[in-house]
Write a structure and sequence with these properties.
Layout (H helix, E strand, L loop, with lengths): L1 E5 L7 H15 L4 E5 L5 H11 L4 E6 L1 H11 L6 E5 L5 H6 L5 H10 L3 E8 L2 E3 L2 E5 H11 L2 H5 L2 H13 L3 E7 L2 E14 L21 E7 L3 H7 L14 E6 L1 E6 L4 E4 L2 E5 L2 E12 L1
Parallel strand pairs: 1-2, 1-3, 3-4
Antiparallel strand pairs: 5-6, 5-15, 7-9, 7-13, 8-9, 8-12, 9-10, 10-11, 12-15, 13-14
Helix pairs in contact: 2-3, 6-8
Adenosine-5'-triphosphate binds next to helix 3.
Protein name: Lipid kinase, YegS/Rv2252/BmrU family
Cofactor: Mg(2+)
GO molecular function, one term: metal ion binding
Length: 289
């Protein structure tokens, strides 16, 4: 039996719309399933954790990247496979994993049932599935999540958030420790720590990131003026920003970040706190369909 967790409010109601496309298919094909609808933030983690204890064949999330994070948090450390039907506004996890945007095609992938183990990362007792963004990035995610335009502009809302925050963000001094190697940087805009290549609706922030290599990819941007950052920004959609001297790319298994002033941290697009943070890879800790 497969257990579906549907976030009705994801993607401005797309969660429910996707579910009404796939439920008839399940019925038509006589596939046994159960469904639960999330009622509040954090609920998907509780539902996934409970379902994992009952020995379901798979837990399938229907929602956006926040729902992926919550269901992932509930399944970490279990052998229960995690299926995904994208219904968010960004859907970066689906893009990175090659999961079809079409709900019936995504369902077919779930039903094909070819599990593989992927990495996640741990920070302060929580789990990140795709990426963590610190500083400018965290601030952009905060602004976007609190805005009304996320519903209206979907994927484009992150780009709008970038333009808005670009005017007010103050770069700062940051100390980064990557597997014991200490790096101190001035004028830091952002530090992204990623398991998959893109976030924020298709921004290829760590183009080489893979979630089965036991390592996290890091992108640090520093020493750049607002004006130059604005000009560099479009390059993130192709991943070409990595060739510029303002961008430092690193890779490691444990990353510690502290800053002169507290910087906002997002994990998989949801605000989770402020620096300092310690992020550790959890190799092959999630079974993905
Ligand atoms: N019933 C509910 N009411 C309000 N919020 C909910 C409910 N169920 C889940 N949530 C919250 O909705 C938030 C957004 O979900 P999700 O990220 O899946 O969608 P999205 O933001 O539209 O997609 P994306 O992150 O891909 O852009 C999550 O933080 C989740 O905790």
């Amino acid at each position: 039996m497969r257990y579906f967790i549907v976030n009705r409010v994801s993607g401005n109601g797309r969660g429910l719309a996707r579910w009404s496309r796939i439920e008839p298919v399940l019925k038509e094909r006589g596939i046994p399933y159960r469904v639960a609808f999330t009622e509040r933030p954090g609920h998907a983690t509780e539902l996934a954790r409970e379902a994992a204890k009952t020995g379901v064949r798979a837990v399938v999330a229907v929602g956006g990247d926040g729902t992926v994070n919550e269901v992932g948090n509930g399944l970490i450390g279990t052998d229960v496979p995690f299926g995904y039907i994208p219904a968010g506004s960004g859907n970066d996890f689906a893009t990175a994993q090659g999961i079809p945007k079409d709900p019936v095609k995504a369902l077919d992938r779930v039903l094909k049932h070819s599990p593989r183990r992927v990495d996640t990362a741990d920070f302060g007792g929580r789990v990140m599935v795709s990426s963590i963004g610190i500083g400018f990035d965290g601030q952009v995610a905060k602004t976007v999540n609190e805005s009304k335009w996320k519903q209206r502009w979907g994927k484009g809302s992150y780009a709008i958030g970038v333009l808005k925050e670009l005017r007010r963000f103050q770069p700062t001094r940051v100390t980064l420790e990557v597997d014991g190697q200490v790096i101190r940087e001035e004028g830091v805009w952002l530090i992204a720590v990623a398991n998959v290549s893109c976030y924020g609706g298709g921004m290829k922030i760590c183009p080489e990131a893979k979630n089965d290599d036991g390592l996290l990819d890091i992108c640090l941007v520093r020493g750049i003026s607002r004006w130059k950052l604005l000009r560099l920004f479009p390059l993130v959609f192709s991943g070409k920003h990595v060739n510029y001297p303002y961008v430092v790319m690193l890779r490691g298994a444990e990353i510690r970040v502290s800053a002169e002033r507290p910087l906002v941290v997002h994990a998989d697009g949801e605000i989770v706190g402020e620096t300092p943070v310690i992020i550790s890879v959890r190799p092959q800790s999630l079974t993905l369909l």
